[in-house]
Amino acid sequence: MSAQSSEEDLPPFPTPEISSITLENKHSAQIHYTYYPPSPSKATHPNPFSQTLLVFLNGLVLPRSSWDASISKFLQARINARLPYPALLSYDRYGQGDSDPDPDDAEPPPCHGHDVMSATHVLRQFLLQMWKEHLDISSPTQFPNIIFICNSIGCAIARLFAQTYPGTVSGLLFLDSIMANSDFVSLWPDPDAHNFDPHTLPPGVSERDVRETREKYRRIFHPSVPNSEGLSRRNLATLLPSSSSPALEGPGGSGPYLTVVGHDWETFADQSFTGSLNTPRALTMTYANPAWQKYNEGLTRITSEGKAIGPIVAIGCGHFVQRDGPGFVAGEMGALLDRAVNRGEQVREGDGS
To answer: AB hydrolase-1 domain location, by residue (predicted)?
Structure first.
């Protein structure tokens, strides 16, 4: 068979359904989503992922479109390898991207209209309705085999979902999770603390640098700061006080398969310096990066022994891993999928480029 005919025999790239839905208890607001159907099953080759749903959970800044490149690379890799793939679903939460604001929010954005637990309940209702609408009636299940691919605060929502609805989540890919128990100001030394010693600061960093960094983080990242989505973080540390607990329960009683990914320290430090924060690289490398690494190490303990991989580093990626490294994300998606559904060893697809 020639290479050309081999290429022509490849299955077609699936056409996404780009649409919106109203939830049964919030009829006045639209949630916009992008849904890719699973690869078709054949009598001789059934799709082992026909009842699996990969769900993408956004951070606060980037909408569902930020996953498009990762999804495209993942699907193309599966198609080129003639491997089956599951359904994939990305969406904009209320008040984000193309979706309407949460109709239950009392104030216009920016506001603290609803919290992360509310977003978790909304996610469950959204998934129930989407699964019911797209369910293959020939092989129905009560609920899909869920695998979450998430970034930043999306990781907190995924944890709360798995914690609130035990037995529903088979796999989790955390891409630079938010430090849910941090106020993001205490990361840095406090020049006004009685035990502050300016001589402990890294070379080239002044007390003024520390004060300015603390103030910028307080103004932008402190949980008391409202956002245009209306998603409040004020009680996030209460909801998730520890990175290493509680333990999550997946289908069958054991923990879900988990991959924990952290940002590249150098890339994050560079982006923090050259971006609007203008945080000195030495400050990020000395204080923020080690704290984030410790948090990620804790995350590997929220599942059963042998079910977690990481923390691994997304080389060349800052906090928005799916934006900086869509090929890396696609490879980790495939590896997690095969672990969670086939119960196999991790095998990375492609070179992550």
So the answer is: 54-330
